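Case study: NADP-dependent oxidoreductase domain-containing protein.
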Amino acid sequence: MEARIDRKDLFVTSKLWCTNLVPERVRPALENTLKDLQLDYIDLYHIHWPFRLKDGAHKPPEAGEVLEFDMEGVWKEMENLVKDGLVKDIGICNYTVTKLDRLLRSAKITPAVCQMEMHPGWKNDKIFEACKKHGIHVTAYSPLGSSEKNLAHDPVVEKVANKLNKTPGQVLIRWALQRGTSVIPKSSKDERIKENIQVFGWEIPEEDFKVLCSIKDEKRVLTGEELFVNKTHGP
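Here is what the predicted structure looks like once written out:
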């Protein structure tokens, strides 16, 4: 007998891409997503990056391919999706404090979630505190860093992991949870996926948590530079 999963037991999220960041494209973009997923609604819909790109833009975009972003108009259309029952909640990704403040000045529905890169090597304190102030939940992506800056090999992280008899990855994910965020680690390996879920029922002691927090901020893993930044033409 084939097992069936009830829709209410799933949490489905998707994102609005940069080329669709114009009010008249918001609803059609979501409708295409719903059609692809064969769903009547999704639980959370994010603005992926807070700037608009021209259709067919290069990576990084060339001169004239970064367009004006009507943030207020786009967000109003996102709010209409909630009112019409097509989306349960709406959120943002990769926002700065300045952009968040601008959004909140006109928003009738406060973003439910702000998704951002966050780990001990990039704590993102300013936007994290701004989100807490406004009751916006934070989701941390790239919690382990990346292949270029893999925090699982950081001596401080390894020391705490050995002390607690956990893997460095588990310590980094647990750090994010104890900080008050949800966290979305990614792996293509079954054993790592199983490891990554074993982060409940234990805590990092306060002294070790503070040591992890003291790791010096270096740089973002996902700056968006390769995708979005044209150093000749800007912006």
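For the exam, be able to explain this: The mean pLDDT is 91.
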